[in-house]
Design goal:
With 157 residues, the protein is mainly alpha-helical. The protein has a domain of 64 residues: Double Stranded RNA Binding Domain (2-Layer Sandwich). The protein is 59% helix and 10% strand. Strands 1-2-3 form a three-stranded antiparallel β-sheet, with helices on one face. One of its GO terms (molecular function) is translation release factor activity. It comes from Cyberlindnera jadinii (strain ATCC 18201 / CBS 1600 / BCRC 20928 / JCM 3617 / NBRC 0987 / NRRL Y-1542). It is found in: Mitochondrion.
Length: 157
């Protein structure tokens, strides 16, 4: 007698899905020690927020002390969101500096380039097949016209 398995239980035994996930897996997001960072809040700048942006210190400037990398972020009106975003950007830059080939940013860039390349290949293939089909249609149309003219010539004789 077969035991009933819920759909989730069936997925646990599948190896196809896990292989697919591993191929697309990115390296983990880098982390930075808070001791290596100096943080400054700045006023002003450009972006959303209007007059409020000139009154509040929502712009964040982080400096990584060992490398000297400076990151400024004012993507949102919220100071906390800007702090989080600036830390992510700084961590990515530090990781890229230490290990450029295996950094998250370089892997994402490689994926974007591969996607663009495959897209170009698809469009090139599509246009070449369309051109071949058009050439075949023209050739067939010319042959039909020649056959029609030949039949007209035979009728006159």
């Amino acid at each position: 007698m077969r035991q009933f398995l819920w759909p989730i239980q069936r997925q646990l035994f599948s190896t196809a899905r896990s292989a697919h996930v591993r191929a697309n897996k990115l390296p983990p997001r880098p982390k930075i020690n808070e001791d290596e960072i100096t943080e400054v809040f700045l006023k002003g700048g450009s972006g959303p927020g209007g007059q409020k942006i000139n009154k509040t210190n929502s712009k964040v400037q982080l400096k990584h002390l060992p490398t000297g990398i400076v990151v400024e972020c004012q993507a949102t009106r919220s100071r906390e969101q800007n702090r989080k975003k600036a830390r992510e950007i700084l961590a990515m830059k530090v990781q890229h500096l230490h290990d450029p080939e295996n950094s998250r940013t370089s892997i994402l860039e490689q994926r974007r380039m591969n996607q663009a390349r495959t897209k170009q290949k698809k469009t090139k293939k599509k246009h070449s097949t369309l051109a071949e089909e058009n050439a075949q249609r023209k050739l067939q149309q010319e042959q039909e016209e020649l056959e029609f003219l030949a039949s007209l010539v035979k009728q006159k004789e």
